Amino acid sequence: MINTRLLLAQMTLKAKTTKDLADAQGWSMSTAYRKINGKAAWFVPEVQRCTDFLELTENLVNEIFFAADLS
Questions:
Q1: Domain boundaries of the chain, sorted by first residue
Q2: Is 4-65 a domain of CATH 1.10.260?
């Protein structure tokens, strides 16, 4: 399960919008919202592109994309 809050926080810290992420990934805006909100699965190449795009550390990648159940 994805840690949406942490992903959005990192996007804010890097001054990146959902549109910026969608463009970087080649997604539509609706796909970006579904991915960010955990309604659609992320594939390994997408995680890697997001990691590079946001310049995430290994720890942040693990916390965002490999989070334990947050409910």
A1: 4-65
A2: yes
Q: How far apart are CA 23 and CA 43, in angstroms?
A: 16
Structure confidence by residue, pLDDT tens digits, 1-58: 899 999 999 999 999 999 999 999 999 999 999 999 999 999 999 999 999 999 999 9
Residue found by looking up tokens 């946001």 in the block = 54
- Helix, strand, coil percentages for the chain (3-state, nearest 5): 65, 0, 35
**Angle CA(42)–CA(44)–CA(48) in degrees, nearest 5?**
100
Predicted structure pTM score:
0.91
DSSP assigned state of 28: -
Query: Distances from the Cα of 53 to the Cαs of 13, 27, 68, in angstroms?
Result: 12, 14, 23
